[in-house]
Each structure stands twice: as structure tokens, then as C-alpha cells.
């Protein structure tokens, strides 16, 4: 009775050691190139406020560099972690479970990667451009100038990326759930009944949350409407397929 458990624990130990070694070596390599890592993290702020940051204590820059490196190493080693988990669990799973685990983990990685690229090259530049309009403001006889603190900036950007990626991931997970349960029939009926309310809520949210530039709001709304119509078309195809 102890031999299967011993083999199980031995394999788990070796795979854990392999992952920790990969994580440690990757962390050392990333820390050795900390300047490039910090430049990548602060690239979206480069053209605002001349790319200047402040640090309030001597260890803040080092702690920020470690924080960025740690998160980057987690992202880089995620496929390696997935490989070890899948190889460790596949022997005791059905083919359907293996398929589901593979696709969900692939969806997780792709969602986070796409969200990361969209945030750093599309969302953050417009957001910082809007916030930069408030950096120097004349209020009666006083001038208020904003200084960007690097630790706050890094924490805020990474937390925002994680929040947006989780929202997108939950959305696609819910879509997958509707597809597996009833092939999106109920989703199509719900979306058809509440389509106008959804568009109104999106327009209202965009007018409140986005910068007041007409080009940004119109472009955002056009993209959202196109995506919603494509999504509605997909649900229509599934609905028609199940009712023919």
C-alpha cells in the first residue's frame, strides 16, 4: 500500500524541485537585467512628465525591481508549471478532464497575455494622457504639480492588469459554461431581451469613465458595438443550429 503513495510523493517532489529551480534561475536572470525590466514596466509613462519618477526611501527602487521581476518570472514560468501539472495529473484523469484542463489553462494564459498587451500599448497610454492633464493645474493662486512615485505606479499598473485579465477570464469562462450546458441557447435569449439595456449601460459607463475626448469615446463605443454584434451573431448561429 505504501509503494504507490511513495511513487506519487517522489514524482511530486521531483516536479516541484524542477519548477523551483526554473523559477530561481529565471528570477536571477531577470534581476540581472533589472534595468530592461523597469524600462518595460514604465514604457507607457515614458512620454508623460518626461518619464520622471521619484523614490521616497533608499530601498524603494530595489523593492520595486524585485516586485516586477517576481511577477514577470511567474508569467514566464506559467507554461512550465502547466506542463508539470498536466503530466502529473493526466495519468489519473479521463480524456474529457484532460481536454478541459488543457483548454482552460490555455485560455488563462492567452487571456492574461492579450490583456497585458492591450493595457500597456492601448489602455494605459490614453489613461495617463488623461491624468497628465491634471498634473499642473492653476487653482486660484496655487499651482499643483504631480510627481509620479515609481512604487505606486508599478503596483497600480500590475494590479490593474490582473483585475482586467480576471474580468475577461471570468467572461470567457462563463461563455464556456453556457456552451457546455445548453449550447448558448439561454444566453442568446437573455442577450436578445436585454440587448438595448446592455448598450445603454456601456454608453453610460464610457461617458463617465473614459476621457472626455470625442475621438476616444466614439472609437471605444464603435469597437464595443461591433464586438457585441459579433457576439450576438455567434449566439444566433448556435440558437439556429439547435432549433433547425
TrEMBL record:
Principal subcellular localisation of the protein: membrane
Transmembrane segments: 12-31, 106-128, 156-177, 197-213, 219-240
Taxonomic superkingdom: Eukaryota
Location(s), subcellular: Membrane
Pfam families, per the entry: TatC (PF00902)
InterPro entries: TatC
Keywords attached to this entry: Membrane, Mitochondrion, Transmembrane, Transmembrane helix
Membrane topology: Multi-pass membrane protein
Gene Ontology annotations for the cellular component aspect, listed alphabetically: membrane
The protein, known as: SecY-independent transporter protein
